[in-house]
Specification:
Blueprint (H helix, E strand, L loop, with lengths): L4 H88 L7 H5 L3 E6 L3 E6 L5 E5 H4 L5 E4 L5 E2 L1 E7 L4 E6 L19 E6 L7 E13 L5 E6 L11 E4 L4 E8 L7 E5 H16 L5
Antiparallel strand pairs: 1-2, 1-4, 2-3, 3-7, 4-5, 6-7, 8-9, 8-11, 9-10, 10-13, 11-12, 12-13
């Protein structure tokens, strides 16, 4: 039976709708596929970038661990070397100082600037350090190394030019050295000087008190004379009696003679430090 005209129109319209639907569906599916492909590529790129970043950080962590291991090994070697040197010093010193060296030397520090090096010692448990002002002269930066070779954050507090004293502050808690009374010092008394002569850190020399109330460069008779060996680098280090007390701060030597070293008497160290701290901090320290 032949299709009527309107039947043909209906079938044609339906076919067109089906075709349009298939085309639209194809376009949509293609769009979805393209979008998923782009998302997949973007995700792949992100994963690749994350893997690269992770590998970089792992490499950095590995390098840091290797560096830390190396630093720990160096520190261990330094500590072992210090202990060996300490054992030698104790063995070579007279029995008067056999125990004092071990307890005192850990309160002595190295004081460095960009132009010079000297010695200092800790006078309070919270890290105040005294040294000679001339050790810092001309320097733009100052830092302190403790007995374990740790570089300490250092603050310059002030100085006394006449007494050649400088006061510093380092961070941390420490065992400090006690200042004795220089009025009780006797000629012939045994002493030790601890310092860094010619860069040889934490060296100890032994001697006696050769004289008291000697005049110094400031023409004041406030210095102890000792035959304990003093050399460049000893400046600012402690002169210690057999009770373990600081009786002077090693200051200078007469280069034209032998065994002529001089240390500012401890009573003047105390008054000088307290004057500096009073002026700057508004309080006395020792």
């Amino acid at each position: 039976m032949a299709l009527r005209k309107h039947h043909k129109w209906i079938i044609g319209s339906f076919s067109s709708i089906v075709i349009i639907f298939m085309v639209v569906t194809g376009i949509l599916l293609n769009g979805i596929i393209v979008k998923q492909t782009l998302n997949h590529n973007e995700l792949s790129n992100q994963i690749d970038a994350l893997q690269t970043d992770t590998q970089t950080k792992l490499n950095e962590l590995t390098n840091s661990l290797l560096e830390l291991e190396s630093n720990l090994e160096e520190t261990k070697t330094t500590l072992e070397k210090n202990q060996q040197e300490l054992t030698k010093l104790k063995a070579s010193a007279s029995e008067d100082f056999s125990g004092i060296i071990e307890t005192s030397i850990k309160s002595v520090v190295t004081v460095r600037t960009d132009v010079s090096q000297g010695t200092g010692f800790i006078i309070t448990d919270d890290g105040y350090v005294v040294t000679n002002a001339h050790v810092l002269s001309g320097g733009k930066q100052v830092y302190v190394l403790d007995y374990e070779q740790n570089v300490k954050t250092t603050q310059f507090i002030g100085y006394d030019e006449t007494l050649d004293l400088a006061l510093l502050k380092i961070s941390g808690n420490f065992d400090s050295l006690e200042l004795g009374s220089s009025n009780e010092v006797s000629v012939g008394e045994k002493v030790i000087a601890i310092g860094n002569p010619l860069g040889l850190q934490f060296s100890v020399s032994e001697g006696i008190i050769s004289g008291v109330d000697r005049a110094g460069p400031n023409e004041l008779e406030i210095y102890i004379q000792t035959d304990a060996a003093l050399n460049p680098g000893n400046s600012g280090g402690p002169l210690i009696n057999k009770e373990g007390e600081v009786i002077g701060i090693n200051n200078f030597k007469v280069s034209s003679g032998e065994s002529l070293g001089f240390a500012l008497e401890s009573d003047y160290i105390k008054s000088g430090v307290n004057q500096i701290s009073s002026n700057v901090l508004g309080q006395t320290l020792i």
